[in-house]
């Protein structure tokens, strides 16, 4: 059974329920994970709370040295981490390698914490009075992360939190939990003190305890919109700071003047990479005018050449979905799309991979003539299902995207600079790509959507991460002055 990680070591806990961990390529249960009880969560928070007293006073240079050592260990073990991700999630090994690399970039950003935490200073704001600002840690903070990026998304959170002086309790997805334990073990090897980083596995019991625990000061979350809304409402009601990144329905607008081969490559890569299990996956193509007639044959040709297979098979382009329940959910959406009148161009149901007949495979699926009232458009499918919506004009494409309740990521493909500039200005979405299908910012920027894709005031990692995990304190100082003016009951004025 996969254990928790508390106080710098494995912790068995006292589970009253367990979950299965699958190899999605074979459909076999390969391990089980014990779900944390309230007492187990309390043990993790207690460990983090005890460690915070010393960690917050650890010098910035000492923290930075530990992060640099951690960065080296992560780099050395990157393929081991990627292999663990691929085995339990199902994504292809190169895709898992990319995930680890993008998470590592946030660790590298956090290595510069001595510079990133510098405050402001103004001398003589009033006669003999100086003003300065400092950013101080919050305390024990928690992260709740999804199954689709079991290494990268946790690394969006805890390196930033720990670098800024907080201690951390991570609740990863119970579907693919092993990567988080590898991350924790390597951090201890890098010199991180016990209790600074803890990992608990579980379900709603563990989540709700973290959201309401009096010693947890802030919560970071990535997942679906309904759960993000619950996290935000519950944790803020308990007085906590919250950043909750939620669901998405990412649109890619293609104009008739676009490079159609580039657009076809982008649509297939962004729509079917990681079997569509990405919050930044392109799930809707909004094709303007006669763009559909030029683009769709190219997309069909590329779909026909994709190979679906086990994630660790070097010849596989796309792996399985994560669990049998998730596979059945995606197949149900395909059935619903047909029932509601969409045109099924490519059908991913019933894919059989020789030697892996029990794996959780769904092949690339393409629908044409999708409308906004269809379930496959309204819901986040989170699978390899790409929908095509046809609109007559560029202006209608912008209105169509802006009418969607989600606003995570979007893209426009065009060779018209004026159209691209108008799109990036008018579109109501947090991350925008111009001839780039998945506009995920690098670590020295920040990641976050708009509308129902983000609850809370802060995006994740980068400069926003520094602000989220710290509080600003303003200090106004005056030292002994031989010309002290005596008592003055008037309102303070600058002189």
* CA gyration radius, whole angstroms: 25 Å
Distance between the termini: 68 Å
Low-confidence stretches: none
Report strand order across the widest sheet. Answer: 14-15-16-13-12-18-19
CATH class of the largest domain: Alpha Beta
Discrete helix count: 16
Number of domains: 2
Let me know the largest β-sheet: 7 strands, mixed
Mean pLDDT: 96
Question: What descriptors fit this protein?
Answer:
single chain; Aldehyde Dehydrogenase, Chain A, domain 1; Aldehyde Dehydrogenase, Chain A, domain 2; 2 domains; seven-stranded mixed sheet; six-stranded mixed sheet
Structure description:
- It is built from 16 helices and 22 strands.
- It is α/β, with parallel strands linked by helices and 495 residues long.
- The strands form six sheets. It has a seven-stranded mixed beta sheet, sandwiched between helices. It has a six-stranded mixed beta sheet with strand order 9-8-7-10-11-21, with helices on both faces.
What is the topological layout?
Blueprint: E1 4-6, E2 9-11, E3 18-23, E4 28-34, H1 38-55, H2 60-76, H3 78-89, H4 93-110, H5 113-116, E5 121-126, E6 129-137, E7 140-144, H6 152-163, E8 167-171, H7 178-189, E9 197-199, H8 204-212, E10 216-222, H9 225-237, E11 241-245, E12 250-254, H10 260-272, E13 282-288, H11 291-304, H12 324-339, E14 343-346, E15 365-368, H13 375-378, E16 385-391, H14 394-403, E17 406-407, E18 409-413, H15 417-426, E19 431-434, E20 450-451, E21 454-456, H16 462-468, E22 470-478
